[in-house]
Amino acid sequence: MYKLMLLFTIAMLSAWSLHAQHVLSGKVRNSQTGETVPAVSVKARNTPYGDYTNDQGNFRFTLRAPLPVTLVFSSVGYATKEVTVSSAGAITVSLDPSSILGTEVVVSASRNIQRKIESPVTIERIDNKDVINSPQPSYYSMLQGLKGVDITTSSLTFTTITTRGFNTSGNTNFTQVVDGMDNQAPGLNFPLGAAIGLTELDVDNLELLSGASSALYGSRGLNGTLVMTGKDPFKYQGVSFQITQGVNHVRKGRGNDPMGASPYYDWTLRWGQKVNDRLAFKINAQYTRAKDWLAADTSNTNGPGSKYTDPNYNGVNSYGSKTSVDINPFLEAIKAMDPSTAPIVDPLLANPANYVSRTGYPEYGYLSNDAKMLKFNAEVRYNIKPGLQAIVSGTYGGGTAVYSNDTRYALDGFKLAQYRAELRAEHWFVRAYTTRENSGNTIIASPTAQLLNEAWKPSYDGNTGDGWYPQYTVGLITALAGGQSLTDAHLSARAVADQGRPLAGSDHFNRLRDSISGIPTSKGGTLFLDRSKLYNAEFQYNFTRFVQFAEVIAGLNYRMYNLDSKGTLFPDHDGAIHVAEYSAFAHFSKKLIHNKLKLGAAFRLDKNTLFEKPRTTSRLSAVLETMKEHFLRFSYQNAYSFPSNIQSLQSTLVDYNSYASGGSARLLYGEYQFDKYQPYTLESVNKYRQTEDASVLEKFEPKDIKPQSVDAFELGYSALVAKCVLIDVLGYYSTWKNFIGYVNVAHTPGSTDVEDFKDRSKYIAYNIAFNGAQKVNTYGYAASVSVDLSRNFLAKVNFSSDFLKNRNNSQINNFNTPNWKVNMEFGNTGLGKKQLFSFNTSLRYRPSYFYSIGFASGTIDANVVLDAQVSYKLPKVKSRIKLGGTNLTNKYYYTGFGSPGIGGVYYITYAYNVF
């Protein structure tokens, strides 16, 4: 009996020991400065238990396992440290700072954690410490300094990025993923930059995949994918805020900038809180406001000459002057009524046509340049059990922005919201989210100005015979009769016809503009009523623990577009249009030759309900470690994109120059609709397109638009030399099929006479998306070097080059990039013994290059841009003060033709509890 009781007691004690709970706590410090270190991972080895240090450097968690245990402490920028704990209680651990070169890990390259240097494809990474040390006041602007990246800045609050050359505002072939959610606008299908997504203080890391990435991320990944990850509230805790006050438009008149010095504000708040071992939440808010950059290119798109010398002047950023009419009929009418004018009129009629444009408005005073952006985010995470977490989140973004396409679009009061629910385990996740879009009050610059001109004075009133053009013609004859030169007479005639013209910014002007932009396009105005939605559900599972021969990850995805524009963008007059996409993918990888060679393969199947056939894509890759920390990589990627919803369902048809006898200059909207939405076919009307030689017209033969695809090969080499020099070199070659570009075509209602297509008064101009017949090739190479100079000094330089051959000259193809570009960076993250001072500088050089967009084309001048910042830490109050500037020389530069000139921004930032 005694022995039995003893055995029972031992068993009970053993069971208690197996289920014992120990509270482990402590503090982590920097071994050099003595500062506490937040966001350090503290993990009990071989258990699911652990914690992150909070903003005070403290950690605390309950261990449901017997002691002793080994705690593993790890954080970016510090050497990993292991500490054995034999009893509960508080401990203090010091971590040694170390170089981050070669240690960065990425997820997006293969949807699995791996070192960046071992990635099978080119990938660039920015983490939260890079954001803190950047001279850019916006983390999104930092992307332009990465290898191979092109940007178009259409507005202070709207920047579009891309890789591999095809660069334009609103790029539908670039994918942007924020916390697992595709943050494209559901109707327009392109990401809205930083307008919605992570706030400045909530950035954990950004990973940029260059080039094709459809095999893992689906349609629209031809020009790259940006994966953005927010901060985990379990890891990043405490209240943080950052206040940036600055100034831009510093020197009036520079870069055609009519503004004077204007304030720049950016205020950001983050609160992350771990309530207990199971529950954590975060709340983010950011508000940005400034006077926007202005597009002020006065170049004449109708040929040589200026607004003072060319009566048919149409400036790149002059809105309303696209209305252009041949005044010869009016000259003939004057001569018929008064034959005595023949000596003046006949020399003018000797010209086959005398085109005159209406007077346009510059962007300043016409479009609001009050740039605003407001973002909110809230997230709750709950650990159901160790290794299983539930996440719910909501994100809202809105404000004003301007972007360039076939004209300039001023988005006033646009809103975009995303809501997510997710279950995440060690080997799988299931995620569902929705995106909701509200286009707000959008002003379409050129057509709105044309209608505004018609509103204050019609070009021609068929009932009265009066109008702007009759008055202009009378003024011209009168001035010539008075002895003025032809150039001066045209200026006098314009002054006569412009009598009563409302000044930009006046009450009369604003009333007319707002009334026109408040009428939907479907009813003759210029208002978009886009209220489209996107619904997405996806599942991913890592089968590696069940499969012996390889690492296997597979997933499913379902997406539904609910297109709702009330007939203003889509042929949805009778109700919302539903477009569904289904997809499945699998990724396999296998290590061979003593783990020196890693092979990978990814396959994906996608089906879009607008297209009959599904699309398959693949990626094959190999990474060979030729010697320690030297990796040679090769990849083949096949990527594709379904046409955007607008391209699939319609081509928006805009008439900028139409004029018919007895009618008036007018703006028309219409659409040619495909498939079941098609009331008539393109073949049922006569259309021609204009070739490079403006005098030659070629018939346009429309066909159903198809998905486009690219086959891309890449060879790269990465190496970490002497633990302080990181090298990456690559070359790529791509072949595009069914490339989607645009063409300007002319239509003459009721006429098939080719001569009518040469008379601007008789045709309507449309812009049509179509597939080019020939294959298009792009190729290029790039290299980057990062050097750890010790004592927290780091230098970086990268070079990249992109080329296009077999250009399809019948298309506007948006290959807008210089043949080569260079970025350099030099900085220090902590000077001196206490490392209180830090600084960073960056320099970007772009040679001149040709840029083509829907409404204008021209050369972007070469530019050199220098940014810099210096910071000082106040450890006792957990604060940092930063003094910095972008484009320090304030020499205005351009990233897109017809887009604004970008001057300097000079600022001071106070940041609290930012780490």
**End-to-end distance:** 63 Å
**Which stretches of 5+ consecutive residues score pLDDT under 50?**
4-18, 650-695
Q: For this structure, what is the CATH class of the domain at 17-95?
A: Mainly Beta
Summed over residues and divided by their number, the pLDDT gives a mean of 86
Kindly state the percentage of residues in helix.
Answer: 10-25%
Q: What oligomeric arrangement do these chains adopt?
A: single chain
Q: What is the molecular shape?
A: elongated
For this structure, the CATH topology of the domain at 17-95 is Immunoglobulin-like
How large is the radius of gyration? 31 Å
Count the helices. How many? 10
What is the assigned CATH homologous superfamily of the domain at 17-95? Carboxypeptidase-like, regulatory domain
Describe the protein.
With 915 residues, this protein is mainly β. It is 11% helix and 46% strand. It has a 22-stranded antiparallel beta barrel. Strand 31 (577-592) and strand 32 (597-608) form a beta hairpin. It is elongated. The protein starts with a helix and ends with a strand. The model is unreliable at 4-18 and 650-695 (pLDDT under 50). It is a multi-pass membrane protein. It is found in: Cell outer membrane. InterPro entries: Beta-barrel_TonB_sf, CarboxyPept-like_regulatory, Plug_dom, Plug_dom_sf, TonB-dep_rcpt-like.
